[in-house]
Automatic annotation (TrEMBL):
Broad EC category: hydrolase
Classification via InterPro entries: Calcineurin-like_PHP (IPR004843), CNP_phosphodiesterase-III (IPR050884), GpdQ_beta-strand (IPR042281), GpdQ_catalytic (IPR042283), Metallo-depent_PP-like (IPR029052)
Pfam families in UniProt: Metallophos
SUPFAM superfamilies according to UniProt: Metallo-dependent phosphatases
Signal peptide: none
Transmembrane spans: none
Gene: cpdA
Family classification: Belongs to the cyclic nucleotide phosphodiesterase class-III family.
Annotated Calcineurin-like phosphoesterase domain residues: 8-193
Entry's EC annotation: 3.1.4.17
Molecular-function GO terms, alphabetical: 3',5'-cyclic-nucleotide phosphodiesterase activity; metal ion binding
Keyword check for Transmembrane: no
UniProtKB keywords: Hydrolase, Iron, Metal-binding
Name of the featured protein: 3',5'-cyclic adenosine monophosphate phosphodiesterase CpdA
């Protein structure tokens, strides 16, 4: 199909330097599959590292340095902005101060990435400044198909834990998205399991983690955030002008 664009979303890699290479191997497998599927772009949607340790970021930098596709990364609640800046000096799209939010205009689909982490906290937050940035940035290209990425899901999942460590002021995020019809998809991570929701007119997809899957706890007595035997993976988003946008779970 002409004009096909493929985004490989790889999330919650939780790279550790002390897990016998498990998290690194999972990321390497996801990157190899993204290459095999001819991804145009790879985006890592946060929780890059597991414990905000420099050696974890150094390991991640080594893993991704030979990737032949354009690769972008953003922080999650397990990440540290300063350590990311230090470990990835060649990632010039990352602002040198403040939030690690950015837009990529080089492809048929525009990528708008908003950093909404709160240092030291597990939940996320859309600030008024962040919402203003998102509104201004989306207004720059109102006619270009756009995917917005953030780390925390901007909708209630009905999970007892993850809704409590979710995105604060998600209504503010939704009010911005509602003003920009070109946003065709919102993508995120954080929950380590695939789920689908909606914000304004835009479907939202939670990508899995490459490292492990969390169970769903909806009722008192159910175990909260147990690691399950479900398959980790990544998400392949494919779009063409005639075929629209589809999102596929890719198990690892
Ligand atoms: Fe995570």
């Amino acid at each position: 199909m002409s004009g096909q664009f493929i985004l490989a979303q790889i999330s919650d890699t939780h790279i550790r330097a002390d897990d016998d290479g498990l998290s690194a191997r999972q990321l390497e497998r996801a990157l190899a599959e993204a290459h095999e599927y001819r991804a145009d772009v790879i985006l890592l949607t946060g929780d890059l590292a597991n414990d905000e340790r420099p050696d974890e970021y150094d390991l991640l930098a080594r893993i991704i340095e030979d990737v032949s596709r354009p690769l972008y990364l953003m922080p999650g609640n397990h990440d540290d902005r300063a350590l990311i800046r230090n470990a990835f000096p060649r990632h010039g799209y990352l602002p040198r101060s403040g939030f690690l939010s950015f837009a990529i205009d080089d492809f048929p689909v525009r990528l708008v990435v908003i950093d909404q982490i709160v240092p030291g906290e597990t939940h996320g937050l859309i600030t008024h400044a962040g919402a203003d940035w998102l509104d201004r940035t989306l207004a720059e290209a109102p006619d270009k198909p756009t995917i917005v990425a953030l780390h925390h899901p901007p909708f209630l999942t009905h999970d007892m834990l993850f809704d409590n460590i979710g995105l604060l002021d998600a209504d503010l995020f939704a009010s911005v998205i509602a003003r920009h019809r070109q946003v065709e998809r919102v993508i995120c991570g954080h929950h380590h399991r695939v789920a689908v929701g909606q914000v304004a007119h835009a479907p939202v997809v939670i990508a899995p983690s490459t490292s492990w899957v969390y169970g769903l706890a909806m009722y008192p007595g159910q175990k909260i955030a147990p690691k399950t035997a479900e398959q980790p993976g990544w998400m392949l988003h494919v779009r063409s002008d005639t075929g629209g946008l589809a999102s596929h779970f890719m198990g690892l």
